[in-house]
Structure formats: C-alpha cells, structure tokens
Amino acid sequence: MCSSGKVAQPHISPWNDFKALTNTCNSQETSKRKFCKMADLMNNDVFLAFCTYATIVVLKMMFMAPLTGYFRMTRKAFSNWEDTALGKKNPEERKKMLQTNPDVERVRRCHQNDLENIVPFVPSRGLSWVVGMITTFSMAYRVLTTALLL
Asked: What's this model's pTM, rounded to 2 decimal places?
C-alpha cells in the first residue's frame, strides 16, 4: 500500500506480459496453447490500439469512394467522357459536364491520399509491432542469461 492508502500498481513491462502469457499457456495442452496465445494477444493494449486505429482509417478510406461519387453526381463534374453518359444523350450537355470542381477535387485528393498512406500503414505497423516484441524478448533473454551466468 502507498502512503495515500491506495494499492500500488505493479510495474507494467513487456517482460511481465511475457511471464503471464507463458504461465497461463504452460498449464494448457499443446493443442490449446496456440488458442491461449491468441487470446492473450487480444488482451494486449498495444495490439488493441493498433486494431482500433486500423479499423477507423480503413473504414474512412472505404467511405471516401462513395463520397467522391456523390460529389461528382451532385456537382455534375466528371473527368472523362464515359461518365457523362449516365442520363444525357446530347453531346453538348455532356461536354459541359467535363469540368473540374474544387469540391470534387478536394474529396478526390483526400481519397487518393488515403489510398497512398493507409494501405501501407496497416501491414507496416503490424510488422513493426512484431519486430518490437521480438527485440524486447531478445533483450530480456540477453539480460537474464548474462545475470544468471555472473
């Protein structure tokens, strides 16, 4: 207990998470061990934050495609000749639709930016998380083997 009467929280570190993971999984049979590790992975705060952020940005990216289409239809601003044939058969009216609109361009650039940044974000951040965990465990292994050999 602390001087304020509250119970002190133990120091949270990746090593404590690893020990808790191995203690709970070692009591299981080998066929259930993989499921146990996956269940413990779902309780990891970093993994949950990554999944939350990845879901939010992927949903935003998916929402931008219909929004671009909506702005193109309501502003009647299309970028190619084939898109103007939706309801107009008169070539003069179709030529008027071949224009750029600042609202359409803003949404289109936002969607293009999402496609360029979000698609590489998801696998690269997942990979960096795995590399970080491997580095942490290897450093802990080195420290413990050095400490035990002295």
From this structure: 0.59
